[in-house]
């Protein structure tokens, strides 16, 4: 049974929900996502203190499209992660990636510690822009058994970083020093992964990659990759910048590798990634099922519901939605079992 409870309001008008229980599969914003490999995306928080101008999930205080935020009970998300990891036969990486920043999660160290003890989890990683890193938090995460931090640094220039991250208080020099501390003083591996916004930080990403190699990132996993700037339905768009086509992106990546002599593209196997059986998806496109609404969704116009028969989270669009109400919903998208449905009637 899934419980959602408002525990506060963030950034003046967004309710913050605490989510507990089951199911925690099927929603892009929180819970666990299985994309058919030995890596599970674990999403315990949607919060982020930054306003990156390119944010594909429109996170942070200046978000225009978000209407609610969520944090998930750590024991519930642990159970959900382990259930799928066990189904996959173990040897699974728990990648705490989120549609915000994992460092906002108040139970992060507790969750990492718990996951570390599981025989089904082989590594634990998280993805962050590093704004909330501190020596103390790094030490705690190191002790808890965190294996890797994927750190997005999009420029080494302080003024440009403030612009890209959308907040005056962002201090890239501090993040750099903490990154070096991670490499030198902890067992946590560091992977540097700048977002490349063509025409905005072309030279910066090359400096970032050189710096990543120089400081010794990538003790066990690849030292650096470059992320492609993409536009999503609710994401922020950088004025005047068009995302590159994938073919062009990979051509540029090869040019960067040739010019610097540094590798930034990696095969799945070099990441230790492999295909694995997917946890069974209970519904398919065009199925119609009864769904009970439990809360508004992350973004304007969407609600989150739980399928009544075979419990699973479904994002609902259409109709005059009420909370705690049951609707008939037709599934219109089932990719990776992140189910999206449209209301077709009331029960
Ligand atoms: S890109 Fe990441 S760090 Fe930046 S606002 Fe979005 S979620 Fe936050």
Ranges with pLDDT <50 over ≥5 residues? none
Total of domains: 2
Number of helices: 7
What is the CATH homologous superfamily assignment of the largest domain? Aldolase class I
Q: Widest sheet: strand order?
A: 3-4-6-7-8-9
Mean of residue pLDDT values: 96
From N to C, what is the helix and strand string?
Answer: EEEEEHEHEHEHHEEHEHEEEEE
In total, the number of strands is: 16
Largest sheet: 6 strands, mixed
CATH top level label of the largest domain: Alpha Beta
InterPro entries: Aldolase_TIM, Elp3/MiaA/NifB-like_rSAM, MJ0103-like, Radical_SAM_PqqE_MftC-like, rSAM, rSAM_sf
Domain Radical SAM core: 34-263
Protein name: Radical SAM domain protein
Organism: Staphylothermus marinus (strain ATCC 43588 / DSM 3639 / JCM 9404 / F1)
List the keywords.
globular, OB fold (Dihydrolipoamide Acetyltransferase, E2P), 347 residues, single chain, five-stranded mixed barrel, binds iron/sulfur cluster, alpha/beta, S-adenosyl-L-methionine, 16 strands, six-stranded mixed sheet, TIM Barrel, 7 helices
